[in-house]
Amino acid sequence: MTLSAQIRDHHFDHILLNAAGVMCQTTEELDQIIETSNTGAVVTKSATTAPRPGNPKPRYHEMQDNLGTINSMGLPNEGFDYYLDYVLDKQNTTSKSIFFSIAGLTKQENIDMLHRLQDSNFNGLVELNLSCPNVPGKPQTAYDFEATQAILEEAFAFFTGDLGVKLPPYFDIVHFNQIAEVLNQFPLAFVNTINSIGNGLVIDPETDTVVIKPKGGFGGLGGTIVKATALANVRALRQRLNSSIKVIGTGGVTSGRDVYDLILCGADLIEIGSQLAIEGTPVFDRVTDELTAILKAKGYDNLNQVRGQLQIIE
Ligand SMILES: O=C1NC(=O)NC(C(=O)O)N1
């Protein structure tokens, strides 16, 4: 059973990887994802130029009955140079692809980091995170179509590597049309959808209190409760984007069936975030086994027979 995929010159023996932010802030965590069976790649914690401690704790919470997670991490990371040092060394010793995620707090900070990557020997893929909902006072850039267009115009004026964007979820068909119209103007290698559903609120029933400290308890939602939104965004963007732009499906994956459903909607790679944080790296083997069982039961022997094959009711 070949669970493989391709983005430009990057071949993925496995379609699974972590979602940026989960188990990827330190070199030890990154190594663990790479060394885990049934991952085809790794993505780094979204980097800012300088190291960041992130928001005050508690800033992450797992809901009851595996409903999902809420987080307001606030881009805690070791800083750009730490991840550049790591990827330049690691790319020589692993066959797995590496995604370098960046999330500058301004357009210029993102452009500066892209120049550093352009001038480096990094041969992996770059993910421009335009969707972090948790830095107080900072917007999710990809909800501003003009700002998204402007940063991509400036980036592609010099950047020649394999660049993709991490998008927030959209909830309006017109917005699917508008973001696709912007993205189709650029030679993007991929689009990764979705980031967490921004600014949800979770209450502790024992104490009538929010469960995370930052922003009065407002944080990004992930896990089971975001699956339907992830499916819709993968489907809508796949239907609208040029075929040269691959789609990474992220959001709500807790089982092989969830992976299968995202592939039906057109995803090429699949990221696991919340369930990886909850279950640890065994999630990759479990989900792969479940997916393999579904494919066998349906008589499929590769994912191309599934990808994009979601049926509608005529
Ligand atoms: O892009 C992000 N999405 C999230 O849900 N959380 C992190 C963060 O807060 O750092 N960043």
Instruction: Give the C-alpha Rg.
Output: 18 Å
Q: Tell me the CATH architecture.
A: Alpha-Beta Barrel
Percentage of β-strand residues:
15-25%
Report low-confidence residues grouped into runs of 5 or more: none
Each distinct ligand: oxonic acid
Order of strands side by side in the largest beta sheet? 3-16-15-10-9-8-7-4
Total of domains: 1
Major pleated sheet: 8 strands, parallel
Count of extended strands: 16
Report the average pLDDT across residues. 98
Helix amount, in percent? 25-40%
CATH class reads Alpha Beta
Distance between the amino and carboxyl termini:
32 Å
Structural class: alpha/beta
Overall form:
globular
Number of helices: 9
Examine the coordinates and then state which fold CATH places here, giving the name of the CATH topology. TIM Barrel
Q: Give the quaternary arrangement of the chains.
A: single chain
One letter per element, helices H and strands E, the order comes to EEEHEEEHEHEHEHEEEEEHEHEHH
CATH superfamily: Aldolase class I
Family: Belongs to the dihydroorotate dehydrogenase family. Type 1 subfamily.
Protein name: dihydroorotate oxidase (fumarate)
Pathway: Pyrimidine metabolism; UMP biosynthesis via de novo pathway
Keywords: Cytoplasm, Flavoprotein, FMN, Oxidoreductase, Pyrimidine biosynthesis
Structure description:
The strands form four sheets. Strands 3-16-15-10-9-8-7-4 form an eight-stranded parallel beta sheet. The protein has a four-stranded antiparallel beta sheet with strand order 5-6-14-11, with no helix packed on it. The protein has one domain: TIM Barrel. Helix 4 packs parallel to helix 5 and helix 7 crosses helix 9. Strand 7, helix 3 and strand 8 form a beta-alpha-beta unit. The radius of gyration is 18 Å and the shape is globular. It is of the alpha/beta class and 314 residues long. The chain has nine helices and 16 strands. The model has no long low-confidence stretch (mean pLDDT 98). Helices cover 32% and strands 20% of the residues. The protein binds oxonic acid.
